[in-house]
Amino acid sequence: MKISASLLAANATPSAFRHGRQWQFPSDALRGAVAAAALLAAGLTLGTSPARAQQEPEWLTTLRAKAKAGDADAMQQLAGNLRGQEAIDMYKRAAALGNEVAQYELGKDYMLGFIGLPVDGKEAVKYLTQASAKKVLAADVMLGEIYEEGKPGVPVNLAEALKWYQGAANQDAFEAQYRLGLMYLDGRGVKKDAVEGARWIQRSANNEYGMAKEKLVQILKADPTLNPRLAAASSPDFAALLAKAEKGDAQAQFEVGQAYLGGKGSPLLRDEAASLQWLRKSAAQNYAPAIFWVGLAYQDGNGVKMDDVEAAKWLRRAADLKLAGAQYALGWYYAGGRGMERNMDEAMKLFRAAAEQGDMNAAQSLGHFYYDGLDDKNLVEAEKWSQKAADAGNVPAMTDLGLVLIDKKDFDGARKWLGQASAKGDEAAKRKLNELPFLEKSAKEEGTATPYFDQAKALMQFRQDPTEALKKAVAVAETGTPEVRFALGMMLAGQGYPGIPPDRARGLALVESAAKDNWTGALWTYGGGLMGGLPDVKADPAAGTAMLAKAVAQADDNTTPPEIKYVIGAALLKGAPGVTADQAHGLKLIGAAADGDQPQALLEFARALVLGGPNIQADPPRGVAYFKRAAALNLPGAALNLGVIYERGIGGTKVDLKEAMTWYQESAKHGEAEGQAGVKRLEAAAAAPAAPTPAPAQKPAAAPAGGIPTDTGSPVSNQIR
Prior knowledge:
Elements (H helix, E strand, L loop, with lengths): L1 E3 L17 E3 L6 H5 L22 H11 L3 H8 L4 H13 L3 H13 L8 H13 L3 H13 L8 H13 L3 H13 L7 H13 L3 H13 L3 H9 L1 H11 L3 H10 L12 H12 L4 H13 L7 H13 L3 H13 L7 H13 L3 H12 L7 H13 L3 H13 L3 H13 L3 H16 L6 H13 L5 H9 L6 H12 L10 H13 L3 H14 L7 H14 L7 H13 L8 H13 L3 H13 L8 H13 L5 H11 L8 H13 L3 H13 L36
């Protein structure tokens, strides 16, 4: 099932949120019982239905009460959700009580003329100095800006600006590092020094400051000698290495070539063309690692046009010099037919040569292909090499070894190694570990559907035709595990598979048999069909209700896949035909699905925790943690949501513009236009005053096809910060 999760995002009015949902059902199988639940309940929306549009959220009411009682932190957070004079007064009350965030906000607003305040350099300096004394680093940067540029009541004072920038830069404030670098480059308030200026701009760029990255590119284009001069000045070790390389030392030339690729710990700014020049100099002396890296440059397109044929030539040269890494890499070229004709015999020979030199990735590849990838499976060799790599800590090899032991009917051994791989986060091992009880049962009978189905899945994984294996599985489908019967039944009841025609009656019978064996997914699907949701299944509400109840009762079990937990949990939020609403249980299941990294559950659970809702207690820190987990999985919109949360202080989260910028930049890397807009908005915020944005008028929420409100009306600060 594909569900595009609703995302927090800033639109033209930065405080507003868009909220949309779309979903589709892959077959009629889930349409009946689940459709009424729409997979999401109102409790997981971010906002307010038309009937609740005028009701203030509980978290905002709580903030008001705390502020009234004299809580300075509450005053500051409340001010961020107000506007105009009311916001100004609340910030000043919090600042007077020593709240550093309020002091910083007032200093910034007086500096830029935000929230209706006049531009006033003296007031800005007063509040920013207070915030600086409380270790608010951003205040130091703004003080430097005020003295560098001048403001009403505060004339330009470059010496004072340099002092504030230097202090903040030493504490890793990326904008201060950038501005300090510019002062050295231009000779403003300090003696002109291109290397020192570039050094500070480099540090800012290493902190992911976009303007610094752009400036570095300009500097390098203007003066190509600056890169090694800068590196030599900042690193005596690199200066000595460069001197050896210039004298013709092959190893030093190789290491300089590596250094030009940048990365953590490198004193050089990334320059792929220069890297390749040094690598070629070393390779010309037949230095094997350099030859290997030139091959990798052609493989990845570093400093040269990507060319698999040329890459394979260089990798072959390094492999012939007995370099294990090159042998392993070239083995995959032969295995995948990359830059050459596919040749598994040559690939295995290269993997073996690398493995015998101690390359455990090569050992894992040997074991993997001996088990699944050659015309003739060789369990002896597969176990030998998988065991060797697994003993060395190679996690994929642990999984491979578990599979080999399953084939050998050594289920205790398989459980041991799959358990170790699962504990280290291998998802394939987790899935196979969950299947192990069924596999043990089905292994007692020869020719069951389960191993054929497993073979079909493995072939699909390697993009090979699974039709013959599927045909064998279908022929004896009734002998498979409940999960296999369910999968084959859904296939036959639906569109079939190329070369395997649909057989709806048999498919439904298989789904029903899996349900009778209490497999949760089948119980839920067939139970929904009995409620009237499946054509060709005679409606039987009593039996359907019983099946759905059993599925709900089993949903918490560890063997239930996260996807099923999510679907059942979402249905429980509102109830459905045959399913009594149970919001607490529903939210628990969605949380469990999120813990299993089910994408929609992760995003929806994170959103619910950040903003709360009917019968849902908001827990913003936990919600932010789930959004970060989603961002680590590169789920669309996760990084964008985090940017919005930190920029706006949503749900009481402390405003952190540096953190917001980090997440907007991550969002922008994935091509999200709103993330790119967030980066530009934060970069421009300090450069030009912005007029207060009027509060958005509250309108009745529009409803898409599923009937879920698309606008939440969640009150957050409407000032651009």
